[in-house]
Amino acid sequence: MAGSPPQPLSLPEEFVLLSNLETGRVHETKQTSYGCAAAELGELALRRVLLVRPKKTRKLGIEFYGGPGEIELLDPEPTGLGWADALVAELVQATATAPKPVTARRWLRRRGSAALSLHRARARGRNRRRAGRGGLGGFSLRRPCHAATPAPCCPADWPAARPDR
Prior knowledge:
The chain is of the alpha+beta class. The chain contains 4 helices and 4 strands, in the order ααββααββ. It has one domain. The strands form 2 sheets. A two-stranded antiparallel sheet has the order 1-2. The protein is globular. The chain starts with 10 loop residues before the first helix and ends in a 24-residue tail after the last strand. The relative contact order is 0.18.
């Protein structure tokens, strides 16, 4: 009996795998931590759990989007991902107790290193690694090989983009 297919990686797990060097280290730990926390918000945004609403300003008739971006919870129901459900519960509590809206900037600073540690451990636990020197106990994290089902990597490979099909 064949084993069940591997579960797809979440956005933060993909980010961790892409951020790691062959040694298992990252270029800049602080920036990678913020990026991993941003990937968590991205995963929740893709699942329509939250929205990061940037501040909109108008200067000389042109609209600009920027600023810290406020996090708006859309659907605090369980997602099926343990880490995501814990994160949503934490955001619900933070939005209920904070005098001001929770901003993405403040959230990234608060969550950064915890996000990186969590998703590095999850990637290790899901056996997304290969033998190598140094790094994580003699192993370095890597992206899984999907050679059996390659995804088109450029628009020319997409059926709709090819004029002959």
